[in-house]
Write a structure and sequence with these properties.
The structure is a single chain. By secondary structure, the chain is of the alpha+beta class. It has a domain of 46 residues. Helices cover 32% and strands 15% of the residues. It has a two-stranded parallel ribbon. The longest helix is centred in the last third of the chain and has 11 residues. It is globular, with a radius of gyration of 12 Å.
Amino acid sequence: MKTGLRLVPVLVDGPDAFESAFETISKAGARVVIIEEFFAPHRVMFQDLQKKYHFLVTLSLLPRTD
């Protein structure tokens, strides 16, 4: 069964890489961004990027496995 969903994983190595990551996923047509809880202290930056790129942004509350 096709769901019409497509994952566009983009790895970042720190907060300085989020702007280019959001641009990359925007060009891929993404509408939802899931961000690992590790980056929760940068919520204000995500709000600004959410407004700029019109995404639904959510922080992942899944436990890390590393």
